[in-house]
What we know:
The complex is a heterodimer.
Chain A lengths: L3 E10 L6 E11 L4 E5 L6 H9 L6 E6 L2 E2 L10 E4 L11 H12 L4 H15 L14 H13 L5 E5 L7 H18 L2 E6 L2 H7 L2 E6 L2 E6 L1 H6 L4 H6 L6 E8 L2 E4 L3 E3 L2 H7 L4 E6 L5 E3 L7 E11 L3 E8 L8 E6 L9 E5 L6 E4 L5 E3 L5 H20 L1
Parallel strand pairs in A: 3-8, 3-9, 6-7, 7-8
Antiparallel strand pairs in A: 1-2, 1-4, 4-5, 9-10, 11-12, 11-14, 12-13, 14-20, 15-19, 16-17, 16-19, 17-18, 20-21
Helix pairs in contact in A: 2-3, 2-4, 3-4
Chain B lengths: L7 H42 L20 H8 L1 H34 L5 H10 L5 H14 L6 H25 L3 H9 L4 H12 L1 H16 L3 H6 L7 H6 L9 H29 L9
Helix pairs in contact in B: 1-12, 2-12, 3-6, 3-9, 4-6, 6-9, 7-8, 9-12
Amino acid sequence: MAEITIDDVTKRFGDSTEAVIAVDDVSLDIDDGEFVVFVGPSGSGKSTLMRIVAGLETQTEGDIEIGDTVVNQLGPRARNIAMVFQNYALYPNMTVEENMSFGLKMSTDKSSDDIEASVTSTAEMMGIEDLLDNKPGELSGGQQQRVALGRAIVRDPNVFLMDEPLSNLDAKLRTQMRTEINRLQNDLDVTTLYVTHDQTEAMTMGDRLVVLNQGELQQVGTPLECFYRPVNQFVAGFIGSPSMNFFRGTAQGGILQCEEFEYRLSERMQESVGSHGDFTIGIRPEDLELHAEAVDQNSFEVIVDVVEPMGSISYVYCRSEEQDSEETFVVEVDGKRPINEDQTLYAHIPSTDAHLFDNATGETLHQRKFDSEVRMASDQQFQSVDASSDSA
Amino acid sequence: MATTDSDPGSAQRLDKETRETLVSVARHTILLTWSFVILFPLYWLASMSLKPPGQANTLPPDWVFLPTVYNYITLIQSSEFVAAFTNSLFMVSVSVILVLLIGVPAAYVLSRYDIPMERDVLVWILSSRMLPPIAVVLPFFLIFRELNLFDSRIGMILMYVSINLSLVVWVMKAFFDGIPETLEEAARVDGATRFQAFRKIVLPAAKPGIFSVAIISFIFAWIELLFGLVLTSFEAVPVTLFVYSFIGSRSIEWGMLAAASTSMILPVAIFLIVVNKYLAAGLSFGVVIKE
């Protein structure tokens, strides 16, 4: 097991005149035994960053340190890492047993009896002991996934790297494997880097999230931190499903004038924004309220465009009476609440739950109020991360 | 209650059955006709080789005859045939091994590494097959004579390699392109060197493709006549040239010609039977193993 330090790492592809910057000056410390999720949209550089840690790509600038060793000059085989690939990358010409033992044969001096014992015990742990004589082509997607995980685990590496390992599975199996990977990581306590574009996976799996966009590090924090305390509009929009609603406007005399509505800023908001004139108000769908009547001056009339019933909740897509565009925003309501399309209602943005972002830079000017329950949950998560780092 | 005559479902079923029968009959007719077109010349050749002298090319043909191996015995007793046959077997086999040793790694490099002007390099390799052989045979003759390669087995091996190299490089590049790079990356992360990843993971995965190009290269070299005709005279004569020698300016030895031609088919047929299971997979150019 080992801690990882990513120090001012930049990766440029192509020649200097037309270089594409895939990773832009990223620095990060990952603790021993920590489960860190790199999350971001396509092209954000998350996979490239992981491949740099693996030694499959060479960074243009910066250092990678695993344990106490700077590994810049070391190839993947010298880094004592194990990787799970999106397409599993099981060797098609080998049986499951040969797939799992290949790494041990290549990287250790273990006797064949010891290798066989390691493979058997890992296969039992992964529930694939009956598949050892099968070729990958004879396995289902879920079984291949287990073999790929088993192949990584049997190596007993310093670091696990997982590059979107669940994206080829169906929704049900993905949820199941998500829990299993979480359990395995807890049991094995091996430093793990996990790449995903799926923010649900990121929220549910990582001790910490590393949010990337266009090669730049946006935020590093616990899932709840990133969710409740986004440092900028990108993180606020990317973390959370459905995405946070944004209304762009201009403020004057404590009133934010948006296309959709007028919003009276609370005192706390006015303190946060100071002299900023142009900013965006952001509110999560679950924090927006829909009422039959206006509840205060910050309510505005909306028309229901589409209702998506999800069971226990429904997503209601609305647009303001005031706006010219067809753009909608989404509100989460109780699934049992009867709301129809074309119905006229009043939306209300509670000032305690709203975020404000600078229009020019996207930076957060004002965070929502953190209520005591959320603060407690977040603090507990922090403590558990610290404890796991300390004990390791 | 309802009569079957008026049951529209039954009528539809009948229509469907009739249609399926008609399709099946048409399909079998086409396949049988095609098989006949393909197999009849082979039957004709084999039967001609088994007919006694004088009966081989009569008109109308003798459909019923007493088979004899006279032509084959005469052929085997001919030292020229044995020499030409072993010549070809040796030269073609060595050329196939050589072309694979050169072409497969070249294709791998072109598939996996960023080569400057890669497209141009590929077209340049292919350009060796763009001119008709007859256009280049004379320059080859002059070069071979200068390099003392005329009528030598080494010269013919080089010639066969040059004929097949572009095919091997192009087909194998397409094949390697179809093998996910993550396989090698997984092997490298597992502790293999780049070469070990190629040897232990990529090559076994590319086996169907390698067998495909091997058999195709073997056939192309085995049936080559023109270069053999111009670039050999006695020592390195290939079997195709020996077979051609039965076509004289005044007469054709039909029986011997048929027996020699049938014998020529045998090595290819045996090779095909041995590697058949790899060939079918290889012709799909590797897409099947892409996950």
